[in-house]
Amino acid sequence: MRARSSILHLDLDAFFAAVEQRDKPSLRGKPVVVGGTGGRGVVSTASYEARVFGVRSAMSTREARARCPHAAYLSGRFEAYRSTSAAVMGLLRSCSPLVEPLSLDEAFVDLEQAGLPDLEVATVTAFAEDLRTRVREVTGGLTASVGVASSKFLAKIASDLDKPDGLVVVAPGTEREPAAPDARQGDPRGRPGDGRAAAPGRHLHGRGASSG
Predict the structure, then answer these.
(1) What tens digit of pLDDT does each residue of 94-133 get?
(2) In the annotation, is 20 catalytic?
(3) Which helix (H) or strand (E) holds 1?
(4) Residue 173: exposure state from Cβ atoms within 10 A (0-12, 13-18, ≥19)
(5) ∠ CA 184-186-190 to the nearest 5 degrees?
(6) Which residues are bridge partners to 60 per DSSP?
(7) Is the distance from CB of 31 to CB of 64 less than 8 angstroms?
C-alpha cells in the first residue's frame, strides 16, 4: 500500500450495452442485454435499465428473458467494443505511461507517473473528474466509474461503490475508518460523481468489486 492515493481504477459502465445504446438511439433508456442469445447463452453485459429487473452478467439468457422479456437481446458487435476500448486505453496512456488494462472496459493507471504537481487528494480528485469528462468525449458519451486509492485492491473496490458514473477517492489513512451513517449528512463515500474524498470503512471490507 502506498503513502498516497496514486492508483486509479477506471471501469466503463455496462460497457457492451452502453456501446449498443450509443450506436442505436432507439435502445437508449431501454433494457439491453448483450450475450449469447440461444437457449444455452449467458449474459455478458446488461444495461442498468435491465438490471432493475434483476438481470446480471453471467446469468443464463433463459433466466434473463424470464425476468425481462421486453429487453433487447443482442449477440454483440465486438469490433465496435474493441475500437471504443482502444480509444479509452489510448486516452489513459496519454495521461500516464503505466497503464494496466484488465479487460476491454477497465484498467489501472499509475498516477505517480502522470506528471501531476502533487498527489494530494484534491489534485487526484480533479484529475479523475477531468478524466471522466474526457472519456465521455472520446467514446461519444459513454460513462466511466473511477476509484482512486493507495492500492489496486482498494481502487478497484472504490470504483464500484458509486456506479454508474461515479467517483470515489479513498484518502490515505482512512481505509479503516468507520463509515458515516448518511450520504446527505457526511457519508464519506459521497454521492455519485461528486468527487469528494472517501473513507469507505466497512464498505471497502464488506463488498467485492464487479465489472460493468
Answers:
(1) 999 999 999 999 999 999 999 999 999 999 999 999 999 9
(2) no
(3) none
(4) exposed
(5) 75
(6) 42
(7) no
